[in-house]
Amino acid sequence: MRYLRVTDAHPLVQSHPSPSTASEPRIQGWCPGALRPMPSGDGLVVRVRPTLGRLTPLQAQGLAGLAQQYASPMLELTSRANLQLRGVCPDSYPALINGLRTLGLLDERADIEGRRNLLLSPFWTDSDGTPAICEALTLALAAPDAPTLPGKFGFALDLGAPPVLRAGSADIRLERYGGQVLVFADGAPTGACVPLEQAAQTAMELARWFVASGGVVNGRGRMARLLQRQALPTRFTATPVPPAPAAVQPVGDSATGMVVGLEFGQLPADTLYQLASLAPLRLTPWRGLVMEGLHTAPALPELITNPHDARLRVMACTGAPGCTQALGPTRALARFLAPLLPAGRTAHVSGCSKGCAHHGNTLTVVAADAGYHLIDHGTAQSAPDATGLDAQGIAAYLEQQRLHAPYV
Ligand code: SF4
């Protein structure tokens, strides 16, 4: 592999003084919540986890108002289909929390909020079992005897046909299997097939096994990692997990409603307010929204409705200066790279090797102490194929390599 080093600074990628001095990021074993906000370079990050991944018009308009009053007016949609407010100053935080409580967007306690890590297919229906399983899991995770799960441990409720969440982060997956539900551990080839009424309890059984089998180390742990050293209980080896279906189109019309994308999941409060006046909104793990029951989207430039839009090909975290751990800016570089990527290929620009915005293998660019590392096909933690690049260097690399393999 030939390494490129380009030293001329590109106007899009000026070096940025970062409070972080080490290349190694601080890996936090938890995600921010509303009751457990995370400090960042631009204030507190307050993450809201709406029930069923759905905002009523009243909730969405209320959230837009809270963002305008107490936070940055640019909200963010996350890859776990949550919505977060940034830039909250500690003095405003109590008023913001009161507002979220009034809107019915708060859990009772921070530990319950932390465990209620449920990723739902945005195409769920009243009849596919999702609301019932979601409610049962929510109750089980809030019960006094609930297992103490790591902060990033989550459940994917993916009961449509075909499933759409295989690429999403989850430790226990629930999918439709004929008239039943297949409950399986992330990364496992087999699972347990049970009637819908037993699905939540079976998922909790698997979660308890995870804890009892030593899946949690220093408060952290993921199912796929545990499976590398532990065999599953016999019950979860009976039914083969079907192969993953083709990746879902992240924007376009659907039976549930119009799915729209937003660049980097950034959602202006004004836009949220306008959309809320048209329909209830569901959050997607593709950092977009489903406008329930609508089959066209309003003509707003920030809404992405064309699946070939270059903005859908790039992912980028907050980067500098918003994140204290960032070693460089991200989004301007991602915008620059988007049109240079051939159709069907994606890129992830990360402010540090933590790689918050995307955990899968793809063309990855990571800010480093000097310039950017480039990883041909991997994650932000993979060994770099090129180092010390700036924007022009990365563009030259793309041209030189003429990457042909499709990226996931
Ligand atoms: S990946 Fe991005 S958002 Fe996450 S810690 Fe690093 S710089 Fe911050």
Element-by-element helix/strand order: EEEHEEHHEHEEEEHHEEEHEEEEHEEEEH
Specify the number of helices: 9
| pLDDT averaged over residues | 90
Tell me the overall shape.
Answer: globular
Number of domains: 3
Describe this structure in words.
With 408 residues, the chain is α+β, with helices and mostly antiparallel strands. 22% of the residues lie in helices and 22% in strands. The chain is built from 9 helices and 21 strands. A 6-stranded mixed β-sheet has the order 6-7-8-9-10-11. Helix 1 runs antiparallel to helix 7 and helix 4 runs parallel beside helix 5. The longest helix has 14 residues. It is globular and about 55 Å long. The N terminus is likely disordered. The structure holds iron/sulfur cluster. Iron/sulfur cluster (SF4) binds next to loops.
Core attributes:
globular; 9 helices; single chain; 408 residues; Sulfite Reductase Hemoprotein, domain 2; alpha+beta; 3 domains; 6-stranded mixed sheet; Sulfite Reductase Hemoprotein, domain 1; 5-stranded antiparallel sheet; 21 strands
What's the helix and strand layout?
Blueprint: E1 38-40, E2 43-48, E3 54-55, H1 57-70, E4 74-77, E5 83-88, H2 93-102, H3 110-115, E6 118-120, H4 130-142, E7 155-158, E8 172-177, E9 180-185, E10 190-194, H5 199-212, H6 223-227, E11 239-240, E12 257-262, E13 266-268, H7 269-276, E14 281-283, E15 288-292, E16 303-304, E17 314-316, H8 331-337, E18 347-350, E19 362-367, E20 372-378, E21 386-389, H9 391-401
Parallel strand pairs: 6-7, 7-8, 17-18, 18-19
Antiparallel strand pairs: 1-2, 2-5, 3-14, 4-5, 4-13, 8-9, 9-10, 10-11, 12-15, 12-16, 14-15, 19-20, 20-21
Helix pairs in contact: 1-2, 1-7, 4-5
The structure holds iron/sulfur cluster.
